[in-house]
Write a structure and sequence with these properties.
The complex is a heterodimer of chains A (294) and B (417). Chain A has 294 residues and is an all-alpha fold. Chain A has a domain of 205 residues: MetI-like fold (Orthogonal Bundle), CATH 1.10.3720.10. Chain A has twelve helices and no strands. Chain B is flat. Chain B is mostly helical and 417 residues long. In chain B, strands 1-2 form a two-stranded antiparallel sheet. In chain B, a hairpin with a 5-residue loop joins strand 1 and strand 2. Chain B has three domains: 42 residues; 124 residues, no CATH class; 221 residues, MetI-like (MetI-like fold). The chains are: A mainly alpha (294), B mainly alpha (417). At the A-B interface, helix 1, helix 4, helix 5, helix 6 and helix 7 of A face helix 1, helix 10, helix 11, helix 12 and helix 14 of B.
């Protein structure tokens, strides 16, 4: 941002202070995440940068924490606890998140289709209701669900967790899909109907390709919410179901080891991939519609 | 004779147009509602019902009634001024000896909330009463435990006699009912909740304040830079937003611990000596720093979307009319950006006030908030009534704030990414 020549030195100074401050804030946002990555390759068992690491001594770096993470205990240098728990946790998280996302997508997309019709009665109130799980603090949702689910014997089951995470995922799908439907030209559906297509066929062949980016990004939000979720998990997972976030939670509270950092690194990379996907989808929607980003 | 009115327009099949239109409108209404129905039903069963359970649990007080049916049957006749008569002692004796073991356990926990000492009193009595074969019970019971001769235990039953109580809501603010249903303060050593509400409020307010302070310049920068660069910088804002909460907490532990990155840097450049490393983790400061970083994107994004819509021409016009840039900024730009700031403030405050994980992991003792107390009562002390009441008070506050947020932003408020 070049400044015009007529600015006084005082204004210039102020401007650079402002740029410096903004830079500091952006650094504050990203720095902790970036610090995790090199530290996950440490060969020591502690969570700080050793002098050897700062000197870039190859001895100070190793992949042992990644091996522990994937449950490969063959390395003779591994002296700490090494089990399959991280792998199992990740597998459980994945199963729960996939099912919860699928249910959220189906229920959320159907609801959005209804909500974006002008004839929908009580549209505002029902939209508010459907996105309320996002607003209610998780600790309250978790407490209520725990008491309710324990009456139905759903505590400590995959079913219970999938149902709970579906609730948490629906708001994201509803928000993104209704936003995509705002720009949807409904005369396309009338045109398709007048050409003799059945409602189902029209939906899948005309509407779906156009709203798909919204559905997918809503689904990704729902997925990441479920995959990272720990509060509801702690309450209704019981001791039976162990997921990745629960494993991390226990790790942070009890035996904090660099394995957590390698898990964290993998998750950071995972979220970068998801973020780029959502961003790409958003741009695609805008391009198709011919809307310039504002 | 409406059907015979000559001016009525009929459709092809002979029905009046009005009725036909109404029918078609009704059909499309049903169609729309039918699409929403599955999600709606699912939400009502799996989300609204649990909140309802919370509500009933927060006022439910049947436990002691189930435990002491005989005593409570006589309770109304007692004047509550002096020790009750032989009949009530007998009723109490029958209730305790006849009670189911789990019921006794749960009910005495509840009774202990009113006056501590009930639990040990009943437990001991339950063991010793087996030796008492026949009346008179009054003296025998006082002999087993002298607390049976203290009137405060009997009086405290007055607060438990109804099936429903507002007592948990009072407890949540360090108040309680005495035996005569007057609202009184909890004893000094039991007062913790007012402090916690206050701390939760202060933490949320501070976090919100820091988010505005740090977020405003960044949002302005993002809104004024050319698209290419601002998109790149936007990644810095969105990446933490997308990363797992626990990962961010782990990252902050590395940064802020005693041997952490921040302390190491400060020591190596000589600001802090090696012995006096700053304690920035497991305390109030840690909670504030970590929550600010976690919630900052919630502040920047709504501010950014409002600032993006402010035309730079206003600033140019103001300066053209003779305002200094700073004056133009304060008088012209800031007022236009306020809706975004307001939305961000309420959003951050709402999320902060219900926080549980961050304070639990990095807060230490003096960084715990109301959310942690709800979890504590749910999982450790098993005082579900109090946990529910506190949760619902919190929820009410949040819904009011959310309503304000909705008014402020309209339907465009909820945007992500």
């Amino acid at each position: 941002m070049a400044l015009p020549l007529y600015k006084t030195p005082f204004q210039r100074f102020g401007h650079y202070c402002y740029l410096g401050f903004s830079g500091f804030v952006l650094f504050f946002l990203v720095a902790p995440l970036v610090a995790v990555i090199p530290l996950s390759f440490t060969s020591s068992a502690f969570l700080n940068f050793t002098p050897e690491m700062l000197r870039l001594d190859p001895e100070a770096f190793s992949l042992r924490w990644y091996k522990i993470m994937i449950g490969d205990c063959s390395d003779p240098t591994i002296t700490t606890v090494c089990t399959d728990k991280w792998k199992d946790g990740a597998a459980n998280s994945l199963v729960i998140a996939i099912f919860a996302t699928l249910f959220s997508i189906v229920l959320g997309t159907l609801a959005s289709l209804g909500l974006s019709r002008p004839a929908m009665p009580y549209q505002k109130a029902i939209t508010a209701l459907l996105i309320s799980p996002m607003i209610v603090p998780l600790i309250i949702t978790a407490s209520g669900m725990f008491m309710f689910f324990s009456q139905l014997d759903l505590v400590g089951t995959f079913t219970g967790l999938i149902l709970a995470h579906t609730i948490l995922g629906i708001p994201f799908v509803v928000i993104t899909v209704t936003a995509t439907l705002v720009g949807f030209d409904h005369s396309l559906m009338r045109a398709a109907a007048s050409l003799g297509g059945s409602p189902t066929r029209n939906f899948f062949q005309v509407m779906m390709p156009l709203i798909l980016p919204g559905v997918i990004s809503g689904g990704l939000f729902a997925f990441i919410t479920s995959f990272d979720e720990v509060v509801v998990m702690l309450f209704i997972g019981g001791p039976e179901v162990v997921t990745l976030p629960k494993q991390m939670w226990a790790g942070i509270r009890q035996e904090i080891s660099p394995t957590i950092l390698s898990v964290a690194t993998v998750l950071v990379i995972f979220s970068i991939i998801l973020l780029s996907t959502v961003e790409m989808l958003r741009r695609r929607t805008e391009r198709i519609r011919g809307i310039t980003p504002h | 004779m409406a059907t015979a009115a000559p001016e009525q327009i009929l459709t092809a099949d002979g029905t009046p147009l009005k009725a036909s239109l109404q029918k078609s409108l009704m059909r499309s209404k049903m169609h729309a509602a039918g699409l929403v129905f599955p999600a709606f039903l699912f939400l009502v069963i799996m989300f609204i019902a649990p909140i309802g359970v919370l509500l009933t649990r927060s006022i439910d007080d049947k436990l002691v009634n189930q435990f002491l049916p005989n005593t409570f049957a006589l309770f109304e006749q007692w004047d509550q001024k002096e020790l009750p008569d032989e009949d009530m002692y007998e009723a109490m004796f029958l209730d305790i000896t006849g009670a189911d073991k789990t019921l006794l356990g749960r009910a005495t926990i509840r009774m202990n909330y009113e006056v501590s000492g009930w639990r040990s009193l009943v437990k001991k009595s339950n063991r010793e009463f087996k030796k008492i074969e026949s009346g008179p019970y009054k003296e025998a019971m006082i002999k087993v435990h002298k607390r049976w001769g203290e009137i405060k235990y009997w009086q405290s039953l007055g607060a438990m006699v109804d099936n429903y109580t507002m007592g948990y809501y009072l407890n949540a603010f360090d108040l309680r009912f005495d035996g005569d249903k007057n609202v009184i303060e909890q004893p000094e050593n039991r007062q913790v909740y007012n402090l916690l509400w206050w701390r939760t409020f202060v933490v949320s307010l501070l976090v919100t304040f820091f988010c505005v302070l740090l977020g405003y310049p960044v949002a302005y920068l993002l809104a004024t830079l050319p698209m290419r660069i601002s998109n790149l910088l936007m990644i810095c804002v969105l990446m933490p937003f997308w990363t797992s909460l626990l990962v961010r907490i782990v990252a902050w532990m590395i940064m802020l611990q005693q041997e952490g990155v921040v302390n190491n840097v400060l020591v190596s450049i000589g600001i802090v000596s090696d012995e006096n490393r700053l304690a920035m983790m497991y305390n109030f400061t840690g909670t504030i720093i970590v929550m600010t970083q976690i919630l900052l994107p919630f502040m920047i994004l709504p501010m950014y979307s409002v600032m993006k819509g402010i035309s730079p021409n206003y600033m140019k016009a103001a300066q053209n009319l003779g305002a200094a840039p700073s004056l133009a900024f304060i008088r012209v730009y800031i007022p236009q950006s306020l809706p975004g700031v307001g939305a961000g403030v309420i959003l951050v405050f709402i999320v902060a006030i219900g926080y549980y994980i961050t304070p639990e992991l990095v807060g230490g003792k003096d960084g715990r908030l109301i959310g942690n107390m709800v979890a504590y009562h749910m999982q450790n002390s098993l005082n579900w009534g109090l946990a529910s009441a506190m949760g619902l008070i919190l929820l009410t506050g949040i819904l009011v704030l959310y309503w304000l947020y909705d008014k402020l932003t309209g339907s465009a408020g909820m945007k992500m990414g």
